[in-house]
Design a protein that fits this description.
- With 797 residues, the protein is α/β, with parallel strands linked by helices.
- It has 31 helices and 30 strands.
- The strands form 9 sheets. The protein has a 6-stranded mixed beta sheet with strand order 11-23-16-10-15-14. It has a 5-stranded parallel beta sheet with strand order 4-3-6-2-7.
- The longest helix has 33 residues, at 409-441.
Length: 797
């Protein structure tokens, strides 16, 4: 890359070229500048030219002094750094030509070549230097005129030969932007029209849209952080490109134009929407403006006004809160209608700013409405399990997703009302019908004596996850598949009661060595041979090791040989601790489990089999309470209890998994023996008892069916644009810190490659600038098609 400053330095030093056969070396180079056009960049030029001195007031640190002081420099009384000039080869035809090395360069601000030539009228302060025009050489154009900025940029004889506008506005702008222009790559300037807009844009940092948004966000603070030249250039760019004068029109006028985003303001709005969190004050500034009133206002006409979005959220909150007074079928229809009328708001920038939680929650609520319209209240237990495995679990997933969007209490109450109005009857009826079928036909989960121990091949690691409910297992399966693993699932029934103490040993590979005596208050079995309780987990691990199993702690991965047991992820603990707020942490918990699976497979395990002990019920606002007198029970958990010998109760009794001769009481429907429980398990329902076991293996490298490749990468600040060649239809563009991990994406949204093979994304975190990352092309299934290393922001490593 050859910069403007490189050519400028070369041009000045080349003035000292002389023919050594017939000439002596010039004593110095004189650089006259009557209009002081070059004065602003002289400190920068002195870095590149250590031999550059300035005529002016004496300041030795700035290498500035009067004429007599400059004569001292010339006489060698003032040392010049021993710097070899750049490009000291000239004129290939006459090898006797050379550049005089390290001769002083005297910059003469405010004086022209003519001032030197007219010795009799030469200003007195300059007269001691007048005779140097004969012993030295003047840096001038081929026509003997002094170099101006315009002539240097435009001339193809000693200058750069660029296409430069010559109007006064362009001249003023180029002088203001000169110090920025110095570092521009000349090859990129060729073919461009360098006019006032170009120079003003260059002066404002090359990104006027960003500057405008920063000004709309910061106001006076933005102006005070800019120099006067930058502010003038910024105003001129806005006037030229937007017909808007920040200085005269003011910040709120700009905020109003942004909210309306018509004409040239549409691109400003789109840029704002890409990274709104960078400009936190803009919504408040728009709020200060008067929103136009329209009878049929919608997202298209009023989507730029936060107050319109807030009004719609308020209306939606009221509508959801009213669902509690409706029959469930009417509530479902109402939610469907609301989803249709608010879906466009989910495309607006206010979603990114967490200003539309209810609009986001509506989508999963609409899914919940669709699923719960079909109750699981017909057929055999097998039919019910099939129905839940196919669709029913999506209702549970929808509840968690809807709750994950709300943070404020009034929003939570509105979503809770909607959930209880349509989900609670469905899950209650489904649980009661399942319990009825089990009463008649028996529990499909069987008991330990009738359950065969599954054979385990060499190289298999069993990963136990506490509380991995069916819907979460489905999401984990999808996440693992996206990461390139082969995943197979198998539905199974949890041991009764559906609590960890009973269920965890039941899914262990050593359950044949475990038994249950009398059902104790902890529902904990013991080691068959020693009668030692498995409570606390010590004896279960000891039993595993005694039977040839490697027990891996959380920080261990083994070597892939033999077969292993490990435990990771405690969803159940988080559920008991957080209640409905568990919904906010599901994504992170599943990601951690996925990372652990990847770690095990990378270590060398051929298969990771993911098992769990039970699921759980979650109902915001609390599960219904059912009374069970304490006098009748040995213990009482949320959804299960051990009845005292001889006590009579109307509760449903079921055999304990570890000892079928021992009965336990399970609460009817989704009721709970304790009040105020939002999260509970131990009873009999699909959510608690039907689980999904996952078998995970390393996948073969994805076949790259597309021939697309990344042809060009351009950074403008933190915006990255790429050009793609080949078969780029239906491809997407992402930037990741680690190419293979979608969770390491650093962009706000993965963007599609357009019909012209172009893509553009923004990295929102400014702290990442300068870090190495990977640009990746993905197909619709998330498979990597191509990748390329880059430096965020476009710098060098």
């Amino acid at each position: 890359m050859i910069r403007v400053i490189d050519r400028l330095v070369k041009a000045i030093r080349s003035a000292a070229v002389y023919n050594s056969d017939v000439q002596v070396a010039p004593a110095c180079i004189l650089w006259p500048d009557r209009d002081r056009q070059w004065e602003a960049i002289i400190p920068r030029m002195q870095i590149e030219l250590p031999e550059l001195f300035v005529f002016g007031e004496y300041d030795i640190e700035k290498r500035t002094g009067a004429a007599i002081w400059l004569r001292c420099v010339l006489a060698g009384k003032i040392p010049i750094e021993n710097e070899t000039p750049v490009e000291n080869q000239v004129n290939e035809k006459q090898t006797s030509y050379r550049v005089a090395e390290n001769i002083p360069i005297f910059y003469l601000p405010g004086f022209s070549r003519q001032d030197l030539r007219a010795v009799e009228s030469c200003p007195d302060p300059l007269k001691p230097l007048a005779e140097l025009q004969y012993r030295g050489v003047i840096w001038s154009q081929i026509n003997a005129k002094d170099w101006t900025i315009l002539s240097f940029l435009k001339s193809d004889q000693g200058g750069l030969g660029l296409d430069v506008a010559q109007d006064n506005n362009a001249k003023n702008a180029m002088q203001l932007a000169l110090y920025r222009l110095l570092d521009e790559d000349i090859s990129l300037l060729k073919g461009k029209r360098l006019d006032k807009d170009y120079f003003n844009t260059l002066l404002t940092g090359g990104d006027p849209v960003r500057d405008l948004l920063q000004w709309l966000d910061q106001g006076d603070a933005f102006r005070s952080s800019r120099g006067e030249n930058e502010w003038v250039a910024f105003v001129e760019v806005c006037k030229s490109q937007l017909a808007f004068n920040p200085q005269d029109d003011g910040q709120l006028s700009g905020a109003e134009k942004l909210a309306i985003h018509e004409g040239p303001w549409q691109s400003i709005w789109e840029r704002y929407c890409e990274a709104p969190n960078r400009y936190p004050n803009i919504p408040a500034n728009i709020h200060k403006c008067t929103m136009p009133l329209e009878l049929f206002a919608n997202a298209e006409t009023h989507g730029g006004w936060p107050q319109w979005n807030e009004s719609k959220e308020k209306d939606l909150r009221k509508a959801l809160s009213a669902l509690g007074d409706m029959p469930s079928h009417e509530a479902r229809n109402r939610i469907t209608d609301l989803d249709k009328s608010h879906r466009e708001r989910r495309k607006l920038v206010w979603v990114e700013l967490d200003k539309s939680p209810l609009a986001l929650a509506l989508r999963p609520l609409a899914i919940l409405s669709e699923i719960t319209a079909n109750p699981l209240t017909a057929g055999s237990t097998k039919d019910l399990a099939t129905g839940y495995s196919n669709m029913g679990w999506k209702a549970d997933a929808a509840i968690l997703q809807a709750l994950s969007f709300v943070k404020k209490e009034d929003d939570f109450q509105a979503v809770t009302t909607a959930i209880r109005s349509i989900y609670m009857p469905w899950v209650e009826d489904s649980a009661r019908y399942l319990q009825k079928q089990v009463d008649q036909s028996g529990y499909p989960g069987a008991i330990v004596s009738s359950r065969k121990t599954q054979s385990t091949a060499d190289g298999e690691c069993i990963l136990f996850v506490d509380g991995l409910r069916y819907d979460l297992a489905q999401q984990l399966s999808e996440l693992l598949t996206k990461r390139g693993y082969k995943v197979a699932g198998k539905a199974s029934w949890a041991a009764l009661p559906s609590v960890t103490a009973t269920g965890k040993p039941a899914v262990s590979p050593v359950r044949e060595f475990i038994e249950g005596g009398e059902a104790n208050s902890d529902f904990e079995p013991s080691v068959k041979e020693t009668a030692q309780s498995l409570k606390g987990g010590y004896h279960l691990k000891k039993l595993l090791k005694a039977n040839g199993w490697i027990v891996l702690e959380k920080s261990e991965s083994g070597d892939g040989n033999g077969h292993a047991w490990c435990e990771f992820g405690n969803i159940d603990h988080e559920g008991h601790e957080r209640g409905w707020k568990l919904s906010r942490f599901i994504t992170g918990l599943l990601s951690e489990i996925s990372d652990r699976v990847g770690q095990l497979l990378t270590t060398g395990w051929k298969t990771v089999r993911i098992v769990t002990d039970h699921g759980w019920l979650l109902l915001p606002g609390g599960l219904p309470k059912i009374d069970l007198p304490t006098a009748l029970v040995e213990n009482k958990w949320g959804r299960c209890a051990v009845i005292k010998p001889g006590a009579v109760t109307e509760e449903h009794l079921f055999p304990w998994y570890w000892n079928p001769n021992q009965s336990i009481a399970l609460a009817n429907g989704i009721s709970c023996f304790k009040a105020g429980e939002e999260y509970a398990h131990g009873g009999l329902s699909f959510q608690e008892c039907l689980t999904l076991e996952l078998i995970v293996k390393s996948g073969a490298p994805a076949k790259q069916e597309s021939s697309a490749e990344i042809a060009d990468v351009v950074w403008k600040g933190l915006r990255c644009k790429i050009a793609v060649e080949g078969d780029f239809a239906a491809l997407f563009f992402d930037i990741r810190m680690k190419a293979g991990n979608p969770d390491d994406s650093v962009v706000m949204n993965v963007k599609p490659i357009d019909e012209n093979g172009m893509g553009s994304v923004v990295v929102e975190n400014e702290d990442l600038e300068g870090n190495e990352a990977s640009i990746v092309l993905l197909d619709k299934d998330g498979r990597l098609i191509a990748q390329e290393k880059t430096i965020i922001g476009g710098g060098t490593d």
